[in-house]
Amino acid sequence: MDVAPLTVFHWWFVFCTLPGLQMTEIENIYVTIGSDVNIKCPNAKVNTWQYFESKKLLCDLLWNGQNSINPNLTASDRLNVTSDCQLLIQNFTTTDICTYFCYEKKNDSKGYKLHVQLRNLTIDGTDHFGVIQSTEGTNLTLRCIVTGFLLGDKTYWTTNNKLLVSGKTRSLNHTLTAHRSYNMNEFTCTTENSKETQPLIAHVRLNLILKPSVFITVSVNSGVRKKGMDVFVRQGKDIELQCREKDNESKNGVIFRWLYNGNMFQNNTNVIILNKIKPETSGLYTCNASNKAGRDSDTVNIIVTYFPLVQTEDITFNGMNRPRTLNCNVSGEPNTYILIWRHYTYNNQLIRMFNKSTSGMLILPEGEADDLVFEDSGFYICNVTNGIPDDCGKLWQSGKIKVMVEGSSFEQANGRMNMGFPLDIFIVFRLLIKHYFMGSHWMYLVIDVFIKFKTQEKKTFKTTLLS
Ligand SMILES: *[C@@H]1O[C@H](CO)[C@@H](O)[C@H](O)[C@H]1NC(C)=O
Ligand SMILES: *[C@@H]1O[C@H](CO)[C@@H](O)[C@H](O)[C@H]1NC(C)=O
Ligand SMILES: *[C@@H]1O[C@H](CO)[C@@H](O)[C@H](O)[C@H]1NC(C)=O
Ligand SMILES: *[C@@H]1O[C@H](CO)[C@@H](O)[C@H](O)[C@H]1NC(C)=O
Ligand SMILES: *[C@@H]1O[C@H](CO)[C@@H](O)[C@H](O)[C@H]1NC(C)=O
Ligand SMILES: *[C@@H]1O[C@H](CO)[C@@H](O)[C@H](O)[C@H]1NC(C)=O
Ligand SMILES: *[C@@H]1O[C@H](CO)[C@@H](O)[C@H](O)[C@H]1NC(C)=O
Ligand SMILES: *[C@@H]1O[C@H](CO)[C@@H](O)[C@H](O)[C@H]1NC(C)=O
Ligand SMILES: *[C@@H]1O[C@H](CO)[C@@H](O)[C@H](O)[C@H]1NC(C)=O
Ligand SMILES: *[C@@H]1O[C@H](CO)[C@@H](O)[C@H](O)[C@H]1NC(C)=O
Ligand SMILES: *[C@@H]1O[C@H](CO)[C@@H](O)[C@H](O)[C@H]1NC(C)=O
Ligand SMILES: *[C@@H]1O[C@H](CO)[C@@H](O)[C@H](O)[C@H]1NC(C)=O
C-alpha cells in the first residue's frame, strides 16, 4: 500500500479525534489572483496547517526539517511557512481558494477556519445579469463596494471612458439623475492598488423604464398615412388610429387612454378603429400614454371630407333693389370652394360667365340707379367643387337658380335677344311709337333699343315716356 494516502488518513484521523479541539473562530481573508499571500493564524501558538475540506495536511512544524511544507501537494512549490508558522502562498491562483484550518496540536487548543476568497468589487442592487432597473427621471445612487479593502485602494466610477467620481474608501457612490440617454448604458467601477497586479473591475448596466413618448398614426383602409396634425379622410372609409411609442419597448408598462374632443373615449388600448366614417366622426383624437415614469400625449385632427351639397332658391328681384345677390348654399369638407357661375337664358343659351370665386354669394354687377336691368333674369348655374369628388366620381356639383326681375315684361324677349352672337356690336336706335297732344304740349312714347351681342352687363331695353 502506498504510504501517502495512509499518512493523510492518519492525520485526518488525528484531527477528528483530537479530544478538546474547539473550532470556534472563523475569519475571512481576501486576496487577489497573482499576489503573494501571507496568512497568519489568529492563534499565536500554532503548529499545524490543513486544508479544511480535504483534511490534507499542509505543514506541521513538529516535523523534522527546515521546510515543513508537505512536498506531496500540487501547490507545494508556491507554499512556505515561516518560523512562527505563518502560511505563505506565492502567486495566488483560483485553485488556492478554499478554507484553511490552523490549530495547535494539543488538548483544548483552539482551531481557526480561515476562508480565503478573492477580493472583489460589488455594485449594490444589481441582478444576476449585472443590471440595475430604475425609472427615468429618478435620482439613482450607484454604489460600489470593495470586499477585502486594502490600504492604498483607489476606486473610481467611469462611463464611456469618462471619469465620474473617485475615492479611496471602502465604498464609492455615484449619484445621477436617470436621464433617458443613460438607458442601457454601462457604468464601470474600478479599484486599483499599487501593490496589486490586477485591478478589480465591476460593470453595471442601467435598464430604465422610460417616460412614454408617443405619436399617432392613421391608417385609412389599411394604408398608413403619414401623420400630420390634420388628417383628411373621405367619408365612408375605415380608419385605424394607432398610438405608438417612439421607443417601442413594451417593458415600459404604458397605459393608453383615448380622448375624443377632450372627453373620455376609450381605455387600455393603443388602437382604435372607426368604420365607415361620417362627417360627425370628425374631431380631435388624443392618445394619452402614461407609466410610472411619466406621461405623454399626441393628438390628431380627423377631418372627414365630403363633396359639397348645394342648396339654392329661386329668386325674384324687385326692380330697384340693389345689390342683387344670388346664393348657392354649399356645405362640404374641406369648406373651401371654387365656384364658377354661369348665366343662361330661360332656354339655356349661355349669356355670361363670372369670374371664379370662393364664396357661394354672387353679387350681380350694377347698372345705373334707375336701370331695372331686366336682362339679369334667366337661369344661374353655380358650379362648385372642394376637390372632393362625389360617389360617382364627379368633381363638380352644381346648383340652379331661376332669377326673375319684377316688372320685366321682356323675359321672353330677353330670352330671344341673348342669342350668344360672337360679335360685340352695340346698336342703339329709338322707335317713336306714338305721339299725343296733351292740351299744351306733346307726349311721345319712345322705345330706346340698345343691343349688345355677346352681352355682358349693358342694359338692353329701356322704355321711357318722354314729355
Ligand atoms: C510524501 O510522499 C512520500 C512518497 O510518496 C512519502 O514518503 C512522504 O511520507 C509523504 N509526505 C507526507 C508529509 O505525507
Ligand atoms: C521558504 O522560506 C525559507 C525561509 O523562510 C527559504 O529559505 C526557502 O527558500 C523558502 N522556500 C520557497 C520554496 O520559497
Ligand atoms: C503566476 O502564475 C501564473 C500561472 O498560474 C504564471 O503565468 C505566472 O508567471 C506566475 N507568476 C509568477 C511571478 O510566478
Ligand atoms: C489530553 O487528553 C487526553 C485524553 O482526554 C488526556 O489523557 C491527557 O491527559 C490530556 N493531556 C493534557 C496535556 O491535558
Ligand atoms: C464578491 O464577494 C462577495 C462577498 O464575499 C460575494 O458574495 C460575491 O459572490 C463575490 N463576487 C464575485 C464576483 O466574486
Ligand atoms: C435629484 O437630485 C437633484 C439634486 O442633485 C434634485 O435637484 C432633484 O430634485 C432630485 N430629483 C428627485 C426626483 O428626487
Ligand atoms: C452611498 O449610498 C448609500 C445608499 O445607496 C448610502 O446609504 C450611503 O450613505 C452613501 N455613502 C456616501 C458616502 O454617500
Ligand atoms: C419597433 O417598431 C418598428 C416599426 O414598427 C419595428 O420594425 C421594430 O421591430 C420594433 N422594435 C422592437 C424592438 O419592437
Ligand atoms: C377610462 O379610465 C378613466 C380613469 O380610469 C375613467 O374615468 C373613464 O371612465 C374610463 N373610460 C372608459 C371609456 O372606459
Ligand atoms: C392627458 O395628457 C395631458 C398631458 O399630456 C394631461 O394634461 C391630461 O390630464 C391627460 N388626461 C388624461 C385623461 O389622462
Ligand atoms: C342659405 O343659408 C342661409 C343661412 O344658412 C339661409 O338663411 C338661407 O335661407 C339659405 N339659402 C338657401 C337658398 O338655402
Ligand atoms: C362645371 O365646371 C367644370 C369646369 O369648368 C366643367 O367641366 C363642368 O362641365 C361644369 N359642370 C356644370 C354642370 O356646369
Automatic annotation (TrEMBL):
Superkingdom assignment: Eukaryota
SUPFAM superfamilies on file: Immunoglobulin
Topology term for the membrane: Single-pass type I membrane protein
UniProt xrefs under SMART domains: IG, IGc2
GO cellular component, one term: plasma membrane
GO biological process, alphabetically ordered: cell-cell adhesion
Database matches in CDD domains: Ig
Record's signal peptide: 1-23
One Gene Ontology term of the molecular function aspect: cell adhesion molecule binding
Keywords assigned by UniProt, alphabetized: Disulfide bond, Glycoprotein, Immunoglobulin domain, Membrane, Signal
Domain Ig-like: 136-202, 212-301, 308-387
Record protein name field: Ig-like domain-containing protein
Species annotation: Mytilus galloprovincialis (Mediterranean mussel)
